[in-house]
DUF2264 domain-containing protein
Amino acid sequence: MAATTGVRLGYDPSEHPFCKVKLTDRSSVQQLARTLLDPLEPFFSPKKATIRCPGATGVRFDQTATEIEGFARPLWALTFLLAGGGDYKNAELWSQGLKEGMDPSSDEFWGQVRDNDQRMVEMCPLGTAFALVPSFWQSMSDEQKANVETWLAGSVNEKRMPNTNWLWFRVFANLGLKKNGGKYSKERLESDIKHLETFYRASGWSNDGPEGIHQMDYYSHSFAIQFLQLLYAKMNGDEDPERAAEFKQRAKDIALDLVHYYDDEGRSIPFGRSVIYRFAMVSFWGALAFADVELPEPLTWGMVKGIVLRHLRWWQTQSDIWTPAGTLSIGFSYPNMYMAENYNSPGSPYWASLAFVCLAVPEDHPFWTSEEQLATGSIPKIRGMKHPGHITSYLGGHCMLLNSGQACGYPMKSTHAKYGGFAYSSAFGYSVPSSCFTLEQYSLASQLGFSDDGGEYWKTRRLCEYAGLETRRGGDGQETPVLVSVWVPYPDVKVKTILVPPQEDTPNWHLRVHRIEAGREVMTADGSFAIANERGSHTDAGSDKGRNLDSYDAARCEGTFPKLIGNYDLKVPEGWATGKEGAFAVSKGCVGIRALEGDLLGSGVGERSANIVNADPNTNLIESRTVIPTLQHTIPAGSIVCYISAVYAKPAGKKVAPSTYLDGWDKPPSVPDWLLEEIKSG
């Protein structure tokens, strides 16, 4: 039986070498990359063409493609390490695998490429590897080079691809061959880039798809489009200087927006799909340095370096991301299949290796020679961003964005939670449903849900009839950015939502206003952020440590109001409060929600009530057990009501005393006069 030391079966994830590297300079980041690669060695196939990462979960594509992912995605880290002059003891394993995988006579041949084949994605790191590490190509015989030409570009140039960022992957397949004098398609390379240009909108932002799609997540910058534009500018800028200059200018433009997605703790805001790629969220910043972009004011290389290194350090504290074999798991801060997309195989998380692009930056570049700096003191506390439909805030101890209008271009699991939520936080993450029955399973963090069947099934915001960044002028003459959206959860239920960011005097609050025209009777549930449902996060709870939160205890600075009731006794009176009293939960910080006096409910519809939803485990990205303070109500058919919800969030922090977690709770923001007038008029 395992000793009761927190170690199970001899495995303690906090002892992973990745968690132990002290990050200070370029050589320490090189060592960090090696700790990511080392655990993969036992999982190479006999001839080294594939890596079967631990885990037997299935995906929408074939098993061989999942093992090609396992091989190709860590190659990003190896490529950047070697391109920057670093070394790695097992580099030859990938060199051998490249020869075998594309050899049709090998029993480890990767297989012929078909239309819309996952193999196309992995051609991007392969092409980049050939371009940046010529020894991979030079070590091959003429026959092996011909195999690469046939597999890497020869076949894929005539195949259909999804009309998304995938087109960049074919660009890099051709570019890798071009840089080595191999056979490639100049026409296809050029036509793909021209088509990708149609995704561009303005201010550096590109959609992950054509007109009719509003999807600007991390694929628009760190995971794909901006990142690969910068790699292209560096790798092919001599032959395509005009386009390279344009790509660099776009990077300068978008950098002034993207800097608002990272907080002083090193966390980035989880938003959208594929966040299992974890530290790839920061790869844009290393790519800026790699492409020799001149930073726009007020950004400095010390700020950029700080964003990257703090981010990597934060992930070093998230030790539960590792499997017992030392490989990356599917999940975010812990293994989690609820949040996974249908294309997330056990090898998929290694797209995180993009973060190591900074290792290809020379050691004398100011990215490495500058002292780390914080960016938050030099940029606005609130920033409205028209193109992604976001307002970001640095107030209140975390980096938060309000969101309107985005939606994935195809049916994706939990798409409403990943793109349709009202607010996303670097400290509290977002939550996804575990199933589709009752609020506990839907886990409606930062969402407004509707049910027309008594609370069994719920619908939330996904597609908007209208969504826009607007401004409102207050009585003091100051303009405030707001997000306005109109959405229809049922054909006869229409919602207008206005999101108002935090203010300097109420930094932990934001406002959500909903004007609802209900043609049928509907129940509503308006959720705050989710927070850890565990006692003892900042106190010694003794034998109760880790158990569910009790009623709020001011002496312990911990608990919930009203009382957290189990999922089966929801009608217990002490589990409910009035909407004006609101609901809050205190553990690793505090979150809460309350109805303000401006609620316009009309006669005969009752008041909103507040309770604590005990969300299903593993629904939140960051904490495996969470609760969600929630306002609930029932709207009669034929009614028009207006909700004004004030949402509270104050995360824990090194300099935040638990005794201050609730300091702002009894001082919610006042409702601006313009807002009251607007919701009255409709």
